[in-house]
Design a protein that fits this description.
The chain is an alpha/beta fold. The protein has seven helices and nine strands. The strands form two sheets. The chain has a seven-stranded parallel β-sheet with strand order 3-2-1-4-5-6-9, with helices on both faces.
Length: 235
């Protein structure tokens, strides 16, 4: 597959108040190939940057009030998500499948040539028939996203992640038990990546493309290294 770098990529990003979204936002703000980042969230991400714009919007299933502000973007890095712990399937389905598909369907209407990158999870069930509730719902979400006529859809399935040092939304598990990650990586090298690698891989998928629509940890690590540096700087 050929890769083409776009020096003026404009990104929509969700989930910036969470660990993953903040990490991906951090990488976007450092990357000279990204000209602009529009963060959409229910509350402020707390960041300021010359290429960062933010919209506070409470209902991701209804973007009509802000639809005109979503035009002209090249990619969406959808990092929003909820834990399934203690949650019944109908609620998890609504907050995962229904919300994500509604958001994506609005974006493709206003930006049909957009690339959509979705944070899923390791062990997602593409058959939608397994015993694990969250994996079935994530699998259906992945399956139906690729049916939406974006330019491309990429489903990212990270496992355990080493957090980016200095970020404020690192989950407690990683703060206190992060020392386990090197051990896990030795035992199962394809189950651990860094948050930085995930962010770089998502950007590279948006800017350059990738040969697979589902990216497991080994794909995330490989794609994070395939960064084509543009000859031009964003103006």
């Amino acid at each position: 597959m050929s890769y083409q770098s776009n020096a003026f990529t404009r990104i929509i990003l969700t989930g910036a108040t969470g660990m993953v979204g903040e990490g991906v936002l951090y990488e976007c703000l450092q990357d000279n190939r990204i000209a602009a980042v529009l963060v959409i969230g229910r509350r402020t991400c707390g960041y300021t940057h010359p290429k960062l714009k933010e919209i506070i919007h409470p209902d991701f299933t209804n973007l009509s009030p802000i639809e005109d502000q979503l035009r002209g973007y090249d990619a969406c890095l959808f990092c929003s998500g909820v834990s399934s712990v203690g949650m019944k399937e109908p609620e998890f389905y609504k907050l995962t499948y229904t919300l994500t598909l509604a958001f994506a369907q609005t974006l493709v209407k206003v930006n049909p040539s957009m690339v959509f990158c979705y944070i899923s999870g390791a062990h997602t069930d593409s058959t939608e028939k397994g015993k694990t509730m969250w994996a079935r719902v994530k699998g259906k979400t992945e399956n139906d996203l690729v049916k939406i006529p974006f330019k491309s859809v990429y489903n990212f399935r990270p496992g355990a992640m080493k957090p980016t040092k200095g970020l404020k939304n690192t989950l407690g598990f990683y703060k206190w038990l992060g020392w386990l990650l090197p051990v896990i990586k030795i035992i199962s090298p394809n189950s651990v990546c860094t948050l930085g690698q995930l962010g770089k891989a998502m950007i590279n998928a948006a800017v350059q493309g990738y040969e697979r629509s589902i990216l497991e940890v080994k794909d995330i690590i490989a794609l994070s290294k395939k960064m084509l540096v543009s000859q031009f700087e964003p103006q």
